[in-house]
Write a structure and sequence with these properties.
Blueprint lengths: L1 E4 L6 H10 L4 E4 L2 H6 L2 E4 L5 H10 L2 H11 L3 E4 L1 H4 L4 E2 L13 E5 L10 E6 L1 E2 L14 E6 L1 E5 L5 E6 L3 E8 L2 E4 L7 H12 L3
Parallel strand pairs: 1-2, 1-3, 3-4, 4-13, 5-6
Antiparallel strand pairs: 6-10, 7-9, 8-11, 11-12, 12-13
């Protein structure tokens, strides 16, 4: 059973549909005991960093996520769910993120011919041996929707990168923590393979 954390963020239903399409049972919940009883946990999301942190704290989900990390339960952050794992974001100055991983969320720099927010398909450069990308073709295209990007402190945790005005850390892996800036649930067969790899983690 997979728990999809409900903190009133957008895009939760599309993640649920993708997980169910892959044949895995899932539950959308903010109940701490239910989340911790599941085999795996997903934190999806589209929206503002500051508002999202406020909701996580309002529902006590920040503490629940720390417990998930500490217990070694496989955890996947998607889009805003990746950004919230880090320490801070240019989008919401003065608001602390969860700080489970070290790094900053920065605004994508303006560049000639590039629109912000970045909305569309971009090619990934995948690190050899990255767990989420097992069996995924080289240089796959995945779907992004974001104005802010991750610059991780530890390059060893970076599983995939892309380029859009700047080098973007597009996916990270550390211990039981996995995260993608892009939307696997909207990334066709490639995205489904990434989600399936997460589902099959032991």
């Amino acid at each position: 059973m997979i728990s999809i954390i409900d903190y009133d963020a957008g895009n939760i239903k599309s993640v649920e549909k993708a997980v169910e399409y892959l044949g895995e049972a899932c539950v959308i919940t903010r109940d701490r005991d239910e989340i911790l009883s599941c085999d795996k946990v997903i934190l999806p999301g589209v929206g503002s960093f500051g508002d999202a942190m406020a909701r996580l704290k309002e529902f006590g989900l920040d503490r629940t996520i720390y417990d998930v990390a500490d217990k070694g339960i496989p955890f996947l952050g998607i889009c805003l769910g990746l950004q919230l794992l880090y320490e801070s974001s240019d989008e919401s100055p003065g608001i602390s993120g969860l700080g489970i991983l070290k790094g900053r969320i920065l605004r994508i720099p303006d560049a000639p011919g590039l629109k912000i927010p970045h909305m569309g398909w971009n090619c990934l450069d995948i690190k050899e041996g990255a767990t989420l990308f097992k069996g995924v073709e080289d240089n796959p295209y995945v779907y992004f929707v974001h104005s802010y990007y991750l610059k991780a402190d530890n390059e060893e945790e970076v599983a995939a990168t892309t380029d859009y005005s700047v080098r973007i850390h597009a996916s990270v892996e550390r211990d039981n923590i996995y995260a993608c800036q892009f939307h696997p649930e909207k990334s066709s067969s490639v995205g489904l393979k990434i989600l399936d790899n997460f589902i099959k983690l032991r």
